[in-house]
Write a structure and sequence with these properties.
Structural class: alpha+beta
Order of helices and strands: HEEEEH
Number of strands: 4
Radius of gyration: 21 Å
Number of domains: 1
Strand content: 15-25%
Largest sheet: 2 strands, antiparallel
Helix content: 40-55%
């Protein structure tokens, strides 16, 4: 596989992961849970995640990027909701640490990146076809 195609395909995978992650964070943004009683206690609510994208420079994996999900820290913020069954004595609940604006921007960036990488795949195929046509 050519370097340009390897880069573009890894970019397509990265953009797909970023859109899926943003969608998951958005869908679960309004879910709430109980606040941990102490900072050392575990949090059992929705765990928002971030996508970490790293460059891959040659080697057996080719060129491009690799992506992985990492848990967001902190996972939650305390919000007032005294009517919730999950509210503590102070009327606070644990809400996922999700900013809808940030998630929407991340999904738009991924959309633009996906379109650019798809265009690279198309151009690579056209170049290969031109080369083969010139040879024959």
């Amino acid at each position: 596989m050519s370097n340009i195609l390897s880069i573009a395909i890894s970019g397509l995978s990265d953009a797909t992961l970023r859109v899926a992650n943003a969608a998951s964070n958005i869908v679960n943004a309004s879910s709430t849970g109980k606040l941990p009683a102490a900072p050392s206690d575990s949090y059992n609510g929705f765990q928002p995640q971030d996508v970490v994208t790293l460059s891959v420079a040659g080697g057996g994996n080719g060129l491009g990027v690799t992506s992985k999900l990492t848990p967001r820290n902190p996972a939650y913020v305390a919000e007032p909701d005294p009517t919730s069954a999950n509210a503590n004595a102070d009327g606070l609940v644990a809400a996922p640490n999700v900013d809808l604006n940030v998630e929407l921007i991340a999904s738009k960036e991924a959309q633009v990146s996906y379109a650019a990488d798809a265009k690279l795949v198309k151009i690579s195929q056209e170049m290969d076809k031109s080369l083969l046509d010139a040879i024959s």
